[in-house]
Amino acid sequence: MKSLKLNMLMMVSFSLLFLWALTGYVLLNQDMMDASSSPKPADTVKVLVRTGTESAALRQIALPFEKETGVKVEFIEVARDSYFTAVGTQLFAGSNTFDVVLMPSTSIAQFASAKAIIPLDSYLEASGDTTKGGLDIDDFFSVYRYNGSIYALPTDISTHFLYYRKDLIPTPPETWDELYEMASHYSSHVQKDSPTRWGLAMPAVVPEEREKIFDSILWSFGGDIMGDDGQVQFDSKESIRSGEYLESLVRDQLVPSDLMSWDFSRTRDGLLNGDIAMAAPYWNSAYPAIKMSHSSIKNNIAIALIPGIRDQSGTVHRMPFQHGWTLAINASSTNPAGAWRFLEFATGKEGGMIYARNGGIPARRSILSSPAFRDREDFALILESMKMAKSEPSLIYYPAMVSVEEDALAKIMTLFASPADAFQEAAVQLRNLSAHISIQSVKRSEESP
């Protein structure tokens, strides 16, 4: 039975490769397909991006870059729902249809281990920007490494906030227990005269949204998926306590009964139409969209640090989730030098300022704290959140890890299994998966010439 479950996990982790290989080219537009069969001039850089705020902001960087360097930028834009399939297909197939690729930081280990993207260390050293000056990598919240080498630089940073109705809640809750009490007060199932239907909501769809959102709760309780030493901690008492907290929100109907179908947009709309009193954990990127909306209550929606756990000294321990959207260079690029020039400009301070002015959330301390954005309340809160924020583990089997965690959370949110049973089963699966990957890695190393 255990062998069957392990095989299923391995299929989850690696069957995407087959799916990418089978369907990816259909998902990309025909112009991109045609480009692969003809050489592109050395003065053109092609950038693969997904539709959304990130691509819109990156496009505004192109014209200043072209004026400064004489290098033309062409964007290949793919819809959000098919983007990850398209990226995987092209990178693993060795396609040269693009030079630079936008990807989340959680994908770096997968593509770097497969040599589908290239290390940037030599470019950084040649430019002399490894510490101060043009790039000033110390100014980034994070750079993304695999086996000691830098493979991607961030354009965008994402973390979690608490959103709340300040007309109903003058002081935001600081702890998860306080949030629970507040959510109970503003849930119509508990308080019949509540002005909102639910006290709380959060995105909980898959893939990935559910576990990313839950991680801010998991880590705040002192739990984890894996420790820094690589040991699975998903069945620790602290992790199980965080699962029990989630279970209580669902069981006591303080969150929507169909929460697992709530995504980013539905959570935002729930705030704007007055259905929910709070959203947490919820993405920082929702704040500008809320403030630019036409909702009559948009000015009553405020943001604060996510709640945490108060210790005996009275200190509240918070640990919000964070990850970055990054730019990396395709290992099959026919113009890696031009790709680096664009990557260097786009992630640099000049490019970052342009990115921020056009709706992006730059991953640089200096820009988020710039006087030019002193009216951006969300920028100030990102800076505060990032002092305590944490990233997911960087693993070559990251999709399988996500699948295991999401499955455990689904069992809790449907009240199908207790948190202890769900997390203990998930921990066994993660340990078996980790051991299997380690064994296979050793075998491949031994077989290498």
UniProtKB/TrEMBL annotation:
Pfam families: SBP_bac_8. InterPro entries: Bact_solute-bd_prot1, SBP. CDD domains: PBP2_TMBP_like. This is Sugar ABC transporter substrate-binding protein. It comes from Paenibacillus hexagrammi.
